[in-house]
Amino acid sequence: TKWVYFFGAGQTEGRADMKNLLGGKGANLAEMANLGIEVPPGFTITTEACNEFYRRGKRWPEGLEEQVKENLRKLEQAMGRRFGDPANPLLVSVRSGARVSMPGMMDTVLNLGLNDVTVQGLARQSNNERFAYDSYRRFIQMYGDVVLGVPRHLFEERLDAKKKARGVTEDPQLSAQDLRELVEEFKGIVRQQKGQAFPEDPWEQLRGAIDAVFNSWNNPRAIKYREIHHIPGDWGTAVNVQAMVFGNMGEDSGTGVAFTRNPSTGVKEFYGEILINAQGEDVVAGIRTPLPVAVLKEKMPHVYAQLEEINKRLEAAYRDMLDIEFTVQQGKLYMLQCRVGKRTAMAAVRIAVEMAQEGLIDRQTAVLRVAPEQIDQLLHPTIDPSARVEAVAKGLPASPGAAVGQLAFFADDAERMADEGKKVVLIRAETSPEDIGGMYKAQGILTSRGGMTSHAAVVARGMGKPCVVGCGALDIDEKRKIVRVNGRELREGDWITIDGSTGNVYVGQVPLVQPELSGYFATLLEWADEFRALGVRANADTPTDARTARQFGAQGIGLCRTEHMFFGEGRIIPMREMILSDTKEERERALAKLLPLQRGDFYEIFKEMLGHPVVIRLLDPPLHEFLPKEPGAVAEVAREMGVTPEVIESRSRALAEANPMLGLRGCRLGIVYPEIYEMQTRAIFEAACRVAKEGHEIEPEVMIPLVGTPGELAFLKERCQKVAEQVMAEQGVRLPYRIGTMIEVPRAALVADEIAREAQFFSFGTNDLTQMTLGFSRDDVGKYVPTYVEMGLLKADPFQTLDVEGVGQLVKMGVERGKQANPDLVVGICGEHGGDPASVWFFHEAGLDYVSCSPYRVPVARLAAAQANL
Ligand code: ADP
Ligand code: MG
Ligand code: MG
Prior knowledge:
Layout: E1 4-7, H1 19-34, E2 42-45, H2 47-55, H3 64-79, E3 82-83, E4 89-90, E5 92-98, E6 109-112, H4 118-126, H5 129-146, H6 152-166, H7 176-194, H8 202-216, H9 220-229, E7 237-243, E8 254-259, E9 271-276, H10 281-285, E10 291-292, H11 296-299, H12 301-318, E11 322-329, E12 332-340, H13 345-358, H14 363-369, H15 372-375, E13 382-383, E14 393-394, E15 396-399, E16 402-408, H16 411-419, E17 424-428, H17 436-441, E18 444-447, H18 455-463, E19 467-469, E20 474-477, E21 482-485, E22 488-491, E23 495-499, E24 504-507, E25 512-513, H19 519-531, E26 535-539, H20 543-551, E27 557-561, H21 572-580, H22 584-608, E28 614-617, H23 631-641, H24 645-655, H25 667-672, H26 674-693, E29 701-704, H27 710-731, E30 738-743, H28 746-750, H29 752-756, E31 761-764, H30 766-774, H31 785-791, H32 807-821, E32 826-829, H33 837-845, E33 850-853, H34 858-868
Parallel strand pairs: 3-4, 16-17, 17-18, 18-19, 26-27, 26-33, 27-28, 28-29, 29-30, 30-31, 31-32, 32-33
Antiparallel strand pairs: 1-2, 2-7, 5-6, 5-7, 8-9, 8-11, 9-10, 11-12, 13-25, 14-24, 15-19, 16-23, 20-21, 21-22, 23-24
Helix pairs in contact: 4-5, 5-7, 6-7, 13-14, 13-19, 14-19, 19-34, 20-22, 21-22, 21-23, 22-26, 23-24, 26-27, 33-34
One magnesium ion binds at residues 325, 337.
GO molecular function: pyruvate, phosphate dikinase activity
Cofactor: Mg(2+)
Enzyme class: transferase
């Protein structure tokens, strides 16, 4: 088996499309070399070797050692240096790299091959003793930490002590002599911690580092990261062994991390950070504050020009925005990494649209580039601009969107508080991979240290969380869980607001506003609309919802729930009167009060949705939801109805049910108390007639809920038709109209053909359908569904993502049988699933005509529907 692939020096064996085998880093290093970009040569040990390593009980696969040695010789030849050579030593880095990047999960060792002898060779060769010993002490530190497991802080403390003793603050201020001493001290730490000397044999060093990378695939942080991001454990990681280049050789050297376009905003500009006279890890670790890459324009103009040229070449090759890592050694530029860059939703949208406009990609590709789950971010709130608030501090805007939450100082606190149902903002000096769980559960993340490429920034952007980093004004006392900021003192649980778009931090709960659809986002969704077959409507109960829905591009209302109207001001009383009526007369008296209210609502909604279908569902929920509970409310209803509170209480008791969700609700109400549906139908048609008289075309659609038998629908349809005809006769208006039903009782899906003969449209009520098919109470799922998901008994919460194998069969069956029996039948879905991308995909495949979801999910559904059709 071929376990090792060479790259660079004109002998590259890999390609960009070999990520599964070579890992992302290895495949892209090979690709850059293929593109003729300067990459220090090296070789990649495959992910298969890593898997084989685990299969063999953590022993190297057969033949790997020979292949590594062979490639090392090839590398020596390419570099004109020898591994372990006292005069002319080859130094390498050992870098992990899985198929997808896992920030900070795997550890890299630099300057490998140094020992007491080769360090002198390096010093003589570079004519720079300071540099040689700086590299050596870094090597011992990194190798000690990553490979030997010596606590990192032991080295850091010694380094700090040395700086203090010399009266300096920055690493580059230490002299060669200081560093030489540090090397000895570091070796002492290793000896003391491990009971054996630091390995001087380069081959032993290399073997150990490769083992460490293999092993890091299964360290707890990596496992946790894979869990959150659904990355299979059997992908394995590749190992890259690469000739070192040095950014720590003086003021004409440095190391940088950048993006070909701005990953926060998407603006087409070279964006990133550089540290002069430093080595790789320094940037990411946030030890020193990096400078914007733009400084290279002045400091090293030829390097900057080269970088711009490389960016263009990389974007043309990858047809995407890239994240690059590079090092400048004495004025010469080397590329060390490139990969498709992580970006915020805002940036993703802008980059996709602009790249299509530039001709780098076509519109289909642009539409496919943006994950529907991700654009949810753009539909997140921002700080209300009219809120008169003063920021208490300002940091770097690392990931946009505003978040309000209670302070948590540690990741596990954040997790615990979030599990208690609290909204949390996680505050840390800086985050590390151990914090991933808490970051995931938090509304937003705030750090006092680090830059735009710090761990917190990168991870938050990936998760789509609002994040502010490097907010230096924060003085965090972790032990006491207190943060002081500009004279204020905040503790765990105190409210804070962060704005990841500006970097502002506010004390307290700042009001937020909902976003609008405009600019690049609107353009992308217009393109999406060209590619989709599935219609997208909204669930909207009020004129305001209807307006929002239109703004987000809904093509009508798929579900208008009439019951929500009854909770409004001045409405609950007549509603209660209606429910608690004893006689038909009493009930009709109450309904007469409700009629004008409903008529007014429907009129407003129709006006908002002119030219688009509006499906109005007749009363659905169990009546007990409307019963007065507190004594005050009981007394009020009693007064209104002219009876004693005792009478009201006893009637309430009589209405109580053991299992209300399976009780007197939906069409059963309409059958037991026909006056209710008659009043609602009258309100719908009176409103529609008024709209028609104003000169608009209108076709109201009346939807009967919870039907399980064709007989139920036939009975209610006839009564509705009677009222409709009556109203139209009274008003002297003729309207087209439709009567249809929800499919939400499993029986309805089973006998969909019979029901379709009575219905002009179906709308799958997937919330109830899921509840009744799985037998999971919608209102109590929190008690066990998360456990099921964790244990893998369920793939996802079936109330969020449709259970395709089970409930999906009923949907498919319902569509097929329904359309067969009635070819004109229009079929939609109006459960929560209508805004869930994976479910939208399924509804497209199942041949539905449209999905209907909450107004804020409409853009998500539009994009998902387009992608399902591409
Ligand atoms: P990560 O996957 O965490 O980004 P990398 O393997 O990219 O880790 O290594 C981190 C940094 O180490 C790189 O960005 C680069 O600056 C530095 N580095 C890695 N290999 C080399 C090398 N051969 N020469 C110089 N610097 C290197
Ligand atoms: Mg890297
Ligand atoms: Mg329902």
